[in-house]
Design brief:
TIM Barrel; eight-stranded mixed sheet; binds zinc ion; alpha/beta
Length: about 300
């Protein structure tokens, strides 16, 4: 069988559940040849991951997933691959993003307290080892027994982290707060400055809406991202079911080939909250062959 890979995973340095070495170990156990560790605005897990790479014989692609905002209510995640992650200016830029997230989280907590949910910053800081993201906040609220009564009154049940995020934490929601962010162009620029390749994460979510059961693709916006330097697309990524995933994969594969964009793929594995699939898409029809990484590497040299 062809060697398989997963170029989009998270560790506990953002909102993943595993340590970098446990993630690489798990990749070995399910026979993956390579993993991309792409924590949100964070590269703190890479040193440990690279050490584990040698121990377990699984290739680690040093990666990051930067959140960028062309406007205050639209979010695009840009994956950076093959980064010179030890670059000090790059690390400083990521640290500034993390600080902004921390400041924002404090405001969000205040908003949640004001509507009657118990959550405090100390618990959040203890839960999130690295970058604080929305699922951490949702998880803490949902898992505090003292919030159960209010959650049930509010949602009619104990909600999933995803349901809580949609009701309280997304733009326009009750507890939402903005933070200082970068545009896609700036995120792509940061990645390029350290020799990385910039790939749009999960276009099947970011650029595809579902209306009346039909998938609607925003290819025009993709052109704008390409104009500001985007190198490629996460073609092999999931949507909410197999049928829609097949349509999205085919659409972006075709587009990547027409526009000569690089192709990437990954499960967005977290093992926490409601985002992503199992590592290596273990529970799903979709798989990412090693050839995808080979092609990325050769495009990166061009
Ligand atoms: Zn993402
Ligand atoms: Zn991700």
């Amino acid at each position: 069988m062809a060697k398989l890979i997963d170029l989009h995973t998270h560790t506990y340095y953002s909102d993943g559940v595993l340590s970098p070495s446990d993630l690489v170990k798990k990749a070995k156990e399910i026979d993956l040849a390579a993993v991309g560790i792409a924590d949100h605005d964070n590269i703190d897990g890479l040193k440990e991951a690279i050490a584990a790479s040698k121990k377990f014989g699984v290739e680690v692609v040093p990666s990051v997933e930067i959140s960028s905002y062309p406007s205050s209510d639209t979010e695009f995640h840009i994956l950076g691959y093959f980064l010179d992650w030890q670059n000090k200016a790059f690390q400083k830029a990521l640290a500034a993003f993390q600080d902004e997230r921390e400041k924002r989280a404090k405001k969000v907590i205040k908003n949640l307290n004001n509507v009657g949910y118990l959550i405090n910053f100390g618990d959040l800081r203890a839960l999130a080892r690295g970058t604080i993201v929305q699922p951490h906040i949702a998880w803490l609220v949902i898992n505090d027994l003292e919030n159960r009564k209010k959650l049930k009154a509010d949602f009619g049940k104990i909600p999933s982290t995803g349901e809580f995020i949609v009701k309280y934490l997304i733009p326009g929601a009750l507890a939402y707060e903005t933070r200082k962010t970068v545009t896609p162009k700036e995120a792509i620029g940061l990645i390029h400055k350290v020799g990385g390749m910039a790939i749009l994460a999960h276009p099947a979510w970011s650029l595809v809406k579902k209306e009346n059961g039909k998938l609607i693709f925003d290819d025009e916006y993709l052109d704008q991202l390409v104009k500001v330097g985007l190198d490629g697309l996460e073609v092999y990524a999931h949507r909410e079911n197999e049928e829609d995933t097949r349509v999205c994969v085919e659409h972006y594969l075709d587009l990547a080939q027409k526009k000569k964009l690089a192709e990437s793929g990954g499960s967005d594995y977290h093992g926490f909250g409601s985002a992503g699939k199992d590592l290596g898409f273990a529970d799903f029809y979709l798989k990412v062959p090693y050839q995808v990484l080979e092609d990325l590497k050769s495009k990166n040299k061009q």
